[in-house]
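Protein modeling request. Please complete all fields; requests missing the sequence field cannot be processed.
Requester role: graduate student
Desired output: 3D structure, token encoding
Chains: 1
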Amino acid sequence: MKTRWIGSPSVNEKMVPARVADLLNEKLKEFWCGLRLLQVEERDSAIAEFKSTLRGLVDQWIDSGKTNQTVAGDTPAQRSITWRSPLYPKALFETLVKFWDRNSPRVIVELNGSWTLQVGPKPQSAASQDSLHMAGEFAIFEFARLLDSTSPERLYRCDGCGKYFVRERTPRKETPIYHGSFCEKCTDKGGARRTVDSRNRRTREMIGWAADAWAKWAPSRRYGTQSEWVAKQVTVKLPRGKSIKINWVTHHQPEIEAEVERREHATRKD
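Delivered output (270 residues):
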């Protein structure tokens, strides 16, 4: 059985994500699909509606793989059309189901007896069509085709500039992408972000060590001041040649005390 995606150019299925990225990045000179049939005065608003709708659908789908980003990073293989959030109260699944209810696929029988499944927005007469509705239908249609392509997970949104780009390879399942996804022009930002994330992670680890020592300190000549004691205990855990001073402890004292309080509260709750 052949499938014909009406109103959409015939391209290799592997190239669909790249074409969607081009649409969102406004790289395609000619805006094809049914919108080219509109009057000139309607075309600009219809194109804007198309891009806005498509961007919203794609962003929700991409963000569904970042629901636990602080822990697991971006996991494209876990993107889901059933996910919703306060920012996206309506699941993509609902949008797609209603779209196909309105635009049921049609079977076209050829003269030789073969048949083709024709899918896409139902054509409307020029006299009755609503240009904005039509634009929205084609946006959903393009998104549906993206999801049906061979490797939709290759489509990303750059965390640096916001542009959309496509990776050459499909990401590995269950393998998170830490520190953000960046296009070629923003790779330096990705490196800087990895450096900052690494420093923040080490600082959080050191605050945890400091909280351990903070809770064990007792006023005495042997222990010295609390800041001195904590600085010595944290230094012991650092790689050889590394150390911290009292001023590091005093600078992070609010965070250390907050961590001690959090642990005590968790113990009382248990």
